[in-house]
Amino acid sequence: MLLKQLVIFSLGIIFSEAALAPPERPYNILLIMPTSPGSHRVFFMPLVRALAERGHKVTVLNALKPLEGEHPNIVQIRHGVTHANPDNIDLFALRLEPMKIFDVFASICRLMAQDFYNDPPIKALYEKRDEFDLIILDHIIGEAGLPFVHERTYITINPAPMDPIQSAHLGNLQNPAYVGNMIEDYTRPFSIGSRVKSLFISLLLPRLWGSSTIDPVEEELQKQFPHLPPFSDIIRNQSLALMNSHFSLEFPYPVVPNQIQVGGMHLRPGNPLPEDIDEFLSGSSPVVYMSLGSMLNSSIMPEAAKQAFFSAFEKLPFKVIWKFEQEPPKPLRNVLMKSWLPQQDVLAHPNVKVFIYHCGWLGSQEAVYHGTGIVCLPLFGDQIKNAVALENLGVAVRLEWSSVTEEAILAAVYEVMNNSKYRDRASQVSTIFKDQPMSPVDTAVFWTEYVIRHHGAVHLRSPERDLSWAQLLYLDVEVVVLLLLYAAYKAFKKLVALCRGFFVSSQPSKIKQN
Ligand SMILES: *[C@@H]1O[C@H](CO)[C@@H](O)[C@H](O)[C@H]1NC(C)=O
Ligand SMILES: *[C@@H]1O[C@H](CO)[C@@H](O)[C@H](O)[C@H]1NC(C)=O
Ligand SMILES: *[C@@H]1O[C@H](CO)[C@@H](O)[C@H](O)[C@H]1NC(C)=O
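^ UDP-glycosyltransferase UGT5, sequence as received from the core. Prediction below:
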């Protein structure tokens, strides 16, 4: 077993060194992130850096503070449209009313669309959009960028797993009998109840999502750019979709040639830790790591939950490292609190055995990649779905915010700490993930250059894109068949009636004859 792991581990090292052919020429590429959550950039930057190292010029447009020490071929441009900044949204309040997120999205998207093309850096880039060989657009709430990509060659990049709504646009309608949706997943095989729910949500969600994220943007931008076609036409014209998805980390589903799985581009071995953190993690005690990610601060969680964590951590016979952004109310002997932590390097430390977090997708992938057991505390959006997926994968137990007590926290942490099955399963999945012909970043680089080399690569597009629902599901043919059957039934009935009439009218004469 150990030997096998060693062999596969070294394979993993080889794949990332397998050389791509040199590029035909340096390209000029633009990456647009309208909403700009920090986590999206975490996923995109490995591709941006790899493209820059191959000699391409990559301009990154987002609302984030520029990163320091990046390759000189990377131009970071900061825009000022920050309506989607998570500091302005009370995510804990949203947990109690999950449907409200659609209203929140709708108002954010409308405001963004109103301001986007009045922002000077965005305006200047928009004027220059013809200079780029390729535009890459963030798929998640990226609709404000659609005027940039009209009549341009573009691809999308999705920091989340495959989105069935996008898949349908690309001509690959997913089957809700075994593919979940953007907000829910179920244990496979789906029970009849799950299949009904899955079908219902797959039909409803495109409308709900569209009316909150696409329609308000389209309404606003059609006023500013009257020449634009319907947004659904522009969306359907994307050359290719890169997605943060891989069958080892989820489940197998069908893809068409322009849906490319580049799941885990951000995953990498740990780098050396800052000295104080390294010192704390080293030693003989196993360590629990807690963080609610970059969008959520542990310090603003509900007071009762915060107290429950404090008293539970105090009782644990393990060390705890906690991303906590304020002065701690009281220092605990076994707990190190820091307002920021290099997450992957912490997870990569061999003593870190349990990760308590909100089940954002990037963190989930990092935990599994580094063989850490997981305690999920999902809050909103796709986190609940991710938590179910991780449970199904056998690497996690789940806690609910509504029942976060000291006892529940202790039970969950002990369960994952004391049973190595969660970490063993994570390591097993990690081994399968690493066994790929090309690293996810190289795969993304290859397909990005491919689309430019082949002027939009229209030959990758599925003919299903040009079929209506009625044609795809054979509804037109079914209607004709049903009509024919109905006509046949009517004709048969008529015939029976005629025969009966014949008998009835002929019988009295027979009687007479007798
Ligand atoms: C979280 O903490 C960081 C660092 O202290 C701060 O800059 C940010 O505004 C906080 N965010 C929220 C949502 O409270
Ligand atoms: C559709 O994509 C092709 C290939 O990338 C591009 O040449 C064309 O201009 C696009 N059409 C529209 C309407 O955006
Ligand atoms: C887990 O192990 C700890 C000691 O490391 C022990 O105190 C605790 O009772 C165990 N809990 C469970 C549920 O096995």
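The first helix runs from residue 2 to 15.
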